[in-house]
Predict the structure of Fe2OG dioxygenase domain-containing protein.
Amino acid sequence: MAGSPVATVVPPLAQSVQEMSVNGNEPPPQYFLKENSIQPMDSYLPSDPIPIIDISLLSSSSLSSKGGEEELQKFKSTLTSWGCFQAVGHGLSSSFLDKVREVGKQFFALPVEEKEKYSRATDGIEGYGNDPILSENQVLDWSYRLFLRLQPVDQRKLRLWPENPTEFREVLDEYGTKVKIIMDVLFKAMAKSLNLEENSFSSRFGERAVMQTRFNFYLSCPRPDLVLGVKPHSDRSGITVLLQDKEVEGLQVFKDDKWFKVPVIPHALVVNLGDQMQIMSNGIFKSPIHRVVTNSERMRISVAMFNEPEPEKEIGPVEGLIDEKRPRLYRDVKNYASFNFECFQKGVVPLESAKI
Ligand code: OGA
Ligand code: NI
């Protein structure tokens, strides 16, 4: 979503989301869903909920077992149809996942002035705050974010990494390292499921692949019928790993013209593919459209980790996935982050613009 730096062109709103949430004030129309957006607000409760996959069965050593082969088939069909799943068997303890959510919540509970020490610069991407407002027509998200780059390590802007709570940086660093290991397993499994050499995807990301995190904070909202926490979007990443709130739902995925709730499974990690995997897989795997709805009672937190190729590396459909039956769908692109942002500004869908 976020992209290259651009100055804010519209003056800030009179009241912050935090003030409106605390006071129960009616949000201004800038937050209201547009009539023509993908409706309706109430989601269809699916009979086939988003799949659960045991990723311990997808590691190289397990894949040769019978359980491994079956799970790999399920993994492949899930990525082809949904583009997302709930991952269990990821090896991270529940207490550690609680800690990650907890440091996020503790940061968000700090006084506004304290959080603002880590504010996103008007022309920057990283740091704490709301999305930049780039046009008067933009529908605003009912959320706060803390967006930080973890890798390459020498690009960390530590001055934007909270020092309060004191263990914030350490927990985030450890979480990033652990999620990266999971992403590596997923890259290999994706390649194997398509009968490709196991590094076919991961090698495209380069030595200095990017890893970023976004802590999302969604406050209770007096008008959940009209206001979204995050508008419908697909992620620009390769892979996104999302730690959901332990109790409060909100995430929904769009499939077969319906919105599906992603239920809370406290120890699971939601994995969804981003646009760059859809491109590299020549459209075989999906980068799902998703959104976050608001609720009038409780705050919700989530922590997303995104990986991306080195910006200068050109990515495109992997050779082995292009043939007469499945001609090349996408052209080569580089710096998808900027490309994505330019598309967003022009109001065009990035994946459509990358088509041949
Ligand atoms: C995101 C996102 C979903 C959520 O950060 O890109 O889609 O549940 N988050 O917060
Ligand atoms: Ni997203």
The domain at 17-36+48-354 is CATH 2.60.120.330 (Jelly Rolls). DSSP finds eight helices and twelve strands in the chain. The pocket of N-oxalylglycine (ligand 1) is lined by residues 214, 216, 230, 235, 242, 244, 250-251, 290, 292, 302, 304 (CB under 6 Å).
